[in-house]
Amino acid sequence: MNWKIHAWVAGIVWCAAATWAQDAPKIEKIDPPNWWVNMPKAMLLVKGENLSHATFTLSDAHLRIAQVKSSPNGHWAELWLNASPQKAEEVTISARNTAGKGSATYKFLTRRSTTDGFAGFSSKDVMYLIMTDRFADGDVSNDTVGNREKIRGWHGGDLRGVMQHLDYLQELGITTLWLTPVYQNHEADSYHGYGGTDMYAVDEHYGSMDDLKELSAALHQRGMKLVLDTVPNHVGPKHPWVEDEPEPDWFHGNRAKHSVAQGDFKPLTDPHASWRDQKNVTEGWFADILPDMNQENSAVAQYLTQNAVWWTEMTGADGLRIDTFPYVGRSFWQGFHAQLHGLYPKLTTVGEVFNPDATIVSSFAGGVTRNSLDTGLDTPFDFPSYFALRDVFVKGEPMTKLAETLRMDALYPHPERLTPFLGNHDTTRFLWEKGATLPRLKLAFAVLLTMRGMPQIYSGDEIAMTGGEDPDNRRDFPGGWAGDPQNAFTSGGRSTQQAEMYDWVRELAILRSRCDELQRGEEQVLLADKDTMVYVRGDALNLAANGKRRVIVAINRSQESRSIQLATSDTSLAGGKTIEMLLGSGTIDSSAEYLELKLLGESVTVFSIH
Fold first, then answer.
1. Which is it for strands 456-458 and 379-380: parallel, antiparallel or unpaired?
2. What pLDDT, in 10s, does the model give residues 316-341?
3. b/e string for 207-233 if b means 16 or more Cβ within 10 A?
């Protein structure tokens, strides 16, 4: 390029800069929209115009902006505050350049009472997963798209629809509600919530922030809990950042050039794996569509951590379900959890680690450092037991497969915190699988609701819904919309099969709520073979019963009846004399050293001994 072209380019750049500087700053949006007193100091991400050469000030002389970082195009500015105020107040944030001033008000609010939510969940709870758009339509005024025949479109379910069916959930025995993300998703087919376009707004299809707060309050009044879905890994392809990044490395790659996320997590747990084999897990774009956030950038990490804090404080959430957990680096998770648990000591997080291998899943649990830093995660979902339950009760693999999975509990610092399940919004429905039957689903539910950990139920499984791969597994709950031909929310509206399944799940949940041993006790396997498994729940199972109550669960998968003789010497049942039948129709005879069990075909028998 010759000197004339150089001069021409330089002139254009100078003229553009001069024109830019002639316009006053404009502040259009601030993330987070508010903050709280006596909180960790915040980083405010300001969106606007002409911000790159602006000087920022706050009206409160006690608060200072310790650091400012603006994007070259003037659309973004990061304001790193030095502190949060000690009293609630509204301040003015001003941006000034040679052409003038722009300003916006900003509120620091009083924090919620520590008794207003933030309770966490535990193995005493039963979690119920709701995909909000597919559960119930409680407010037709937000039904901007009414074509329920479009399988990947918005169907109209909303937060008010959830609120209107809390009686149904509580009667079923649910204590904890997990909602898929409520973020704004301005995408044509992003009904699921995982393609966020504004991480500080409730999508209008679901309702409003007031609706979400009201739902949280209604749950807490019933002694129930709220778990929000959070997605620090990625945003939606139509998020404003995708075409206009606040910093050049806000994402891993860009729309034109990026890697695709790989779902093989093994390299992350292999001390001999190269970065070449690991980077596409934590830096790839999920499904080659969803822009991958760069948490190694300190501003991105701060933004995402604050986002989780903001939703928790705004709603009084009791826990967070964390999407695509392994796809984010461990260093971020360590800082993320340190701040969350510092602010909310009882808050519980559960992470999605979609893998059947317990050696991999356990490596992401809090307290595990064998693969570098401790993530701080309270518990991962129990995907290994999900795969084992499907293998055993659908594919006909021996019951020893489930016992072998339980043996891997030694890998977890807190196996009692694990969250087992039979299915979720990313898996096929149990009854859709080849070989699945209603009796087998009932047996699988019996194990789910009596095994260690906190069971999670996917909305609709309790009424034997079916469905194949996504999105067929996300059918509308029958009765959630006016004019539905049946209403499975009511006992009179359920088919015979739906009623049989619902009543069974409810009976198991009630049994669980009445037995402390099933809610928090240890688990000891006494027998596992091709078709049968017998296990014990209770405290101090390394000791003989001798008056301690033990709850025994006996599963017979075979269609044939079976008699079993169990030696009780040197087991947790030794010394037990009194037997009480809790569920089922099997028979139990006891002697000083043996239990004789007679189990019907495809049955579960639950009894106690002390």
1. unpaired
2. 999 999 999 999 999 999 999 999 99
3. bbbebbeebbbebbeeebbbbbbbbbb
User: What's the full length of the chain, in residues?
Assistant: 610
- 38-53 confidence digits (pLDDT tens): 999 999 999 999 999 9
Give the H or E element holding residue 89: strand 89-97
Closest to 216 in 3D by CA, of 262, 188, 179? 179
- The per-residue pLDDT for range 411-442, each reduced to its tens digit, is 999 999 999 999 999 999 999 999 999 999 99
Element housing 383 (H / E): helix 383-393
Cα–Cα distance measured from residue 533 to residue 530, given in angstroms and rounded to the nearest whole number? 8
Task: Write down the pTM of the prediction.
Answer: 0.95
- Tell the burial category of 510 from Cβ atoms under 10 Å away from its Cβ (0-12, 13-18, 19+): middle
- 26 has which bridge partners? 49
Structure token digits, residue 559: 């269609």
Per-residue tokens: 216: 């949280």
Kindly tell me if the per-residue pLDDT of 17 is higher than 70.
no
User: CA torsion sign, 31 to 32 to 38 to 43?
Assistant: negative
Assign 56 to helix, strand or coil: strand
- Cβ(446)–Cβ(553) under 8 Å? yes
408/383 Cα distance (integer angstroms)? 12
Tokens encoding 165: 């069916």
Q: How far apart are CA 514 and CA 503, in angstroms?
A: 17
The Cα–Cα gap between 340 and 344 comes to: 6
Instruction: Tell me, letter by letter, the H, E, C secondary structure of 145-179.
Output: CCCCCCCCCCCCCCHHHHHCCHHHHHHHCCCEEEE
Alpha helices in 463-524 (DSSP H): 496-514, 516-520
Q: Which two tokens stand for residue 162?
A: 């959830």
Please provide the DSSP assignment of 526-583 as one string. Answer: EEE-SSEEEEEEES-TTS--TT--EEEEEEE-SSS-EEEEEE-TTSTTTT---EEEEE
